[in-house]
Amino acid sequence: MRAQRQSIAKHVAERLFAAEEAIDLAAARIAELNAALPLARLDARLSAMIGQDAIQSSASAMLLMAETREKIVITHANLKHASDTMGLPETSYGDLLKVAGDASRPSGQHLRAV
């Protein structure tokens, strides 16, 4: 049963990391769009009134991406807590650097082997 839970946890973790990556990529692409819109207006020598609604809606999309990213980070922390509660060992996937002052780890607690 423990091996099955570890397998399931690994499957969920892979999906979580894929979602985190997708969100960051989408945020980056929206940021690129947000930068391109006013520059395009300037290059085309158009009135500031033209395209303002597109700039506003694209900026709103960026805000929603930031909120979505916050929710997925909270989900990550919640899944970590669930994993700890179930007694599953910590496992590191990939080469991501973890934040030293991670709020999910009480201060003074040392890293455990993965």
Explain briefly what this protein structure is.
The protein has 114 residues and is mainly alpha-helical.
**How many discrete structural domains?**
1
Helical content stands at: 55-70%
* Distance, first to last CA: 20 Å
Low-confidence stretches: 103-108
Radius of gyration: 20 Å
| Tally of helical runs | 2
Q: SSE order in H/E notation?
A: HH
Please provide the count of β strands: 0
Strand content: under 5%
Task: Detail the topology: elements first, then pairings.
Blueprint: H1 2-43, H2 52-85
Helix pairs in contact: 1-2
Describe this protein's structure.
The chain has one domain. The protein has two helices and no strands. The radius of gyration is 20 Å and the shape is rod-shaped. With 114 residues, it is mainly alpha-helical. Helix 1 (2-43) packs antiparallel against helix 2 (52-85).
